[in-house]
Specification:
11 helices, 217 residues, binds SN-glycerol-3-phosphate, alpha/beta
Length: 217
């Protein structure tokens, strides 16, 4: 499973990237707002840092304008993935931009039918939002599982990019289902390391080591 960082926070992306954990990055208008940076400038910086796909989202609502914005974003770097919303216009833009050889991430996916349409329109990635479905008392992970089954039934090559990931457990579940990619905020990726038995075990080792009176260095 590939790991994307869902953030436009360059130092946070760099910390994970230096550990070899980053296969790509996803951003969206809310994350650009949070970063306080200019979209073109911060996206260029991220693209220079990370070798894998970096999603930059269009903000237009009509297909022609999305295509124009997508072309401009794609000029930033070779590893740009143009992110378009799962609307009819977004699908039209996906078809055109993917036809030009650009990577396209179709975002705001909340149903299997939407995911089928995105695959048909040539999406490189489909982004089903797990946490936002959980927020309205639906089962976000069930959507990942259903899309996996349908894509496998028909050999669709669009990669399932599990998004709106809120917990480390979401990452475990997405991996078990076989999502191709998970995009998560840096804090959620870092939370994956935590286990109470690791903390407890380390504490005991430290206590016992102190009693030996020895030193390694
Ligand atoms: O990748 C999409 C993601 O940023 C949305 O996450 O937590 O705002 O639902 P969230």
């Amino acid at each position: 499973m590939k790991f994307f960082v869902d953030s436009a926070d360059v130092p946070a992306i760099k910390e994970l990237n230096d550990l070899g954990m980053v296969d790509g990055v996803t951003t969206n208008p809310s994350l650009i707002l949070k970063s306080g940076r200019d979209i073109l400038e911060v996206t260029r910086e991220i693209c220079a840092l990370v070798a894998g796909p970096v999603s930059a989202e269009v903000v237009a609502l009509t297909a022609n304008e999305m295509i124009a914005e997508g072309r401009k974003l794609a000029e930033i770097a070779e590893n740009i993935t143009v992110k378009v919303p799962l609307t009819w216009d977004g699908l039209k833009a996906c078809k055109v931009l993917s036809g030009e050889g650009k990577m396209v991430n179709v975002t705001l996916c909340f149903s299997v039918n939407q995911a089928i349409l995105a695959a048909k329109a040539g999406a490189t990635f489909i982004s089903p939002f797990v946490g936002r479905l959980d927020d309205i008392n639906m089962d976000g992970m069930e959507l990942i599982s259903d899309i996996r089954q349908v894509y496998d039934n028909y050999g669709y090559e669009t990669q399932i990019l599990a998004a709106s990931i809120r917990t480390a457990n979401h990452i475990t579940q997405a991996a078990l289902i076989g999502a191709d990619v998970v995009t998560a905020p840096p804090a959620v990726i870092k939370a994956m390391v935590s286990h109470p038995l690791t903390d407890k075990g380390l504490e005991q080792f430290m206590k016992d080591w102190a009693k030996t009176g020895q030193k390694i260095l």
